[in-house]
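Archive entry. Fields below.
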Amino acid sequence: MNNNYGFGRIILTILLAMCMRIAPLPDALAAFNPDWVLLVLIYWSLILPERVGIFHAWGFGLLTDILTGRLLGQYALAYSLVIYICLKLHKRLRQFPLLQQGLFIFFCLLLSQLLLFFIKNLQHPAQLQRVFWQPVFTGTLCWPLVHTALRFVRLKKHN
Amino acid sequence: MPAEDLAIKLLFATGPSINTRLLVAVILSIALLVAEHRSPQLDFLRATLSFFIDPLKYIVDLPSALIESAADSISSYATLKKDNERLRKEQLLRQTQLLKFEALEKENIRLRALLENSFKLGEQVLIAELLAVNMLPSEHIVIVNKGTRFGVHKQQPVLDANGVVGQVFRALPLSSEIMLITDPNHAIPVQVNRNGLLTIAVGSGEPNRLILPYLPSNADIKPGDLLITSGLGGTFPQGYPVATIDDFNSQPNKPFANITATPAAKLDRNRELMIVWSNSTPVPLTTKPVTETAHQPPAHE
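PREDICTED_STRUCTURE:
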């Protein structure tokens, strides 16, 4: 076990998540496109808390800001807060059944989305629309998928 | 290193505690947010980081670009021939129109000189290609593949073959973000081509729909009127088609009429866009020919 164990894999999966984040979907589907980057970050912070910390979340949040053309710092803020909660609770969460884990993921995504809305509202008053909540629900539904896929990636590394 | 050692090392991990780290991250984020909200001093940081991120946009765009080039290469000989013939005819038609246009332009400059009215003329264009990426569905912002390396800068007007598309919202080194005229945060000063009535067209947030909220109920405007850029405000050059009015109904008891318009540009279909450098020096008040500079791509900076 060296110190850089598995870090290449982590970065690759996050870059892939960033690509999926800006994938050119048709408009009807694009409104449902979940926050893949956050889902992947949550997975790695739960499984390898000593590898993915708050500063990693902050850095990838900053890159997401640039990727999506937002004000610098808003995804950085949301991601570092969510990953803080994940790191605090990771020991308990790993024991949870998938359903309870899903509930936790739902609240994580909701927190991040609310923070982003709050910052957007400070910039110029915005309205809460249905479109705004859709990614939270689809993100929760996608969690088992992300979990399985990343588990596959991680275990393949071991062999 | 044995596994237990590593576990112990992780258990008593050195460095600041998790709470301290969170505090630092939150303070840094808020500092960034405030700094960028108040003044655009972080452009350099954004440009540097976008060097690492922009390749992702090109990767995501790759499938659509490949499909397009594949479709081009397998189109049949007959289609190509037909296309070629049609384009040749179209070009001939346009060229004759341009002949007349040049004479009209000269005449216009002469007349303006008589009126002692300065007139901006001569624009340079750069063709940029849309990248098929989807940033945020709720906002009407698109990405093109030309950035500050080609001299693109903020607030440049962007056109397509049919009319005004939008303006450069943010120029990064390898790509730039373009805000469409239909974005709810966008407004463009326009003029009714028929009678010169000045007003402002605001984006509605829906695709292919503009709103004209500042015209009184008795304004001289009717469906089918063409709106062109008025040149006021300085961002957009004068005289380019923006939209056609498609609905006008006056609301009784309200000071302003309810008017909607459809953009002339094909906002959802075009892959090629033109970024325009408008020549900011007015034409001198003499009849010296100045049109040579028009329609040439600028030198790459």
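CURATOR_NOTE: The two ends of chain A are 13 Å apart (CA to CA).
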